[in-house]
Amino acid sequence: MKTYTHILFDLDHTLWDFEKNSEETIYTLYDQYELAKHGKFDCDSFYRKYKFVNTRLWDLYNKGRINQKELRESRFVKTLLGLGLAEHEIPQDISEAYIQICPTKTAVFPYTYEVLEYLQPKYGLHIITNGFKEVQHIKMGASKLNSYFKEIITSECCGYKKPDRRMFEHLLDRINVKPEDCLMIGDNYECDIEGARDAGIDQVYFNPEKIKGRKRPKPTYEISCLSELKKIL
Question: Which parts of the chain span the membrane according to its record (predicted)?
Fold first, then answer.
């Protein structure tokens, strides 16, 4: 089995449970802004619509088609307009409230801490994320993840977004290691797996829902639970 010295982790959807934390936040906002008074949708519908809109906007952001400001300003407008609210009925500060609340949530994927405890004495651990700098640092602090990682690279810090190989190369330069000494772990096939492969880095595709994607090159490894990393490393 190949020997690595450094492990690179994506954060959202890989360690930090974005969907669970986001869902809790959406439910809080539904009550906080009394959205039930409009009588047009329930809390579950609000979350499902937000998830649909947000996922697509993040895809556009990752592809460089929209910027951070456009993503943040449009996701709740598009969500609530799509659910039947008039523009004047949309709370003006709901996007900012989401940004303040969600990063303080602490849900992580099963075995996150156990696996990090197992890996930390053996490898240099690092985060490489397209998430926004201020938000990612709050998430990691609230979830007590900071102490495990040496470098935390965000797309804002280095000027590139995954899957751009230059973002991976920026991290490799900072830790002064060769691509073949690293292993990338992430849930996004395009950003994490294809991006790492393009930079010459082996990959672990984290696929907890065991989704069958379109025909594409296999990652170096594929797992559905973080505990499976102990079999690889």
Answer: none
